[in-house]
Amino acid sequence: MLSTECLIFLLCAASASISQTDWDLEDKIYVEVSSASYEKAIATAQELVSNNKSTVVRDAVKLLMHNKVRNSMEFAYKVWQSGNTEIVKKQFPVAFETILGGDYVNFIDYEYGKALKLGYKTDRNAERTAYGDKYERISNIVAWRLLPFWEDGRLFFKILNKEYNEYLKLDTIINHAGDHRAFAGSSPSDAAYHWYLHPVDFLDRTLFFVYNRQYRQALKLSRQTGLDRDYNVVGHNGDAINDLDIHAWSVSSL
């Protein structure tokens, strides 16, 4: 008969083996997503969920976001499109379901807590300027829908404002710092109207860098204000990924 000490040792060894296996599977998903092997990652996630190891998927997603791996957004989209919407709903932060489910959302900047909105006046090109609003949270001027499409192996979005039925874009004109101003127009036919989201996990908060496809600039609030004293929204001319306070946004349903 085995001694009590031997039994304890064997139980601990078995527990360590199980934990190591979970770590290996988490690493497997991490590598598959990082290398854009989405079909393999979906198959791995499905197998884990069917084997009651869904927390491994959740931990892998959290690690991807913590390490600022952009592909976590593409992975969520591919999982959603494959029909495994429950995996996104249960194993990804709620913002992913909100975005992919087609809900109208708020974009709230991390630094000032201002909501992305459009001004009520149009310029000579019949376009509206984008601003950050400190107080508004529920009206249509701060409501946006993200319309996803897949192109060149990447996920992009057109970002549609509910009030004016216009699409967010960056203008060709730059300021003294090389930042492109954000406007909205009604003809989203070029890459200036296309955006991609880069999710990150920061202190257990889900945040996003919102990058313009054409200019590769991340949205931020400038220190310049409009007529109603709201901050203008611009694309940042420079590295944004390591300056989260200024360039990150939360995305939540209205």
Question: If you had to describe this structure to a student in words, what would you say it looks like?
Answer:
- It is built from 7 helices and 12 strands.
- Helices cover 34% and strands 33% of the residues.
- The strands form 3 sheets. Strands 2, 3, 6, 7, 10 and 11 form a 6-stranded antiparallel β-sheet that branches.
- β2 and β3 form a beta hairpin.
- The longest helix has 31 residues, at 4-34.
Q: What is the percentage of strand-forming residues?
A: 25-35%
What is the name of the CATH topology of the largest domain? Answer: Trefoil (Acidic Fibroblast Growth Factor, subunit A)
The strand count comes to: 12
CATH architecture descriptor name of the largest domain: Trefoil
Order of helices and strands: HHHHHHEEEEEEEEEEEHE
Poorly predicted sequence stretches spanning 5 or more consecutive residues: 6-18
Rg calculated over all Cα atoms:
21 Å
Fraction in helix:
25-40%
**Which class best fits the helix and strand makeup?**
alpha+beta
- Measure the end-to-end span: 64 Å
Count of separate DSSP helical elements = 7
Mean of pLDDT: 91
Give the overall form: elongated
Q: What count of domains describes the coordinates?
A: 2
CATH C-level of the largest domain: Mainly Beta
Q: For the report, how would you describe the main beta sheet?
A: 6 strands, antiparallel
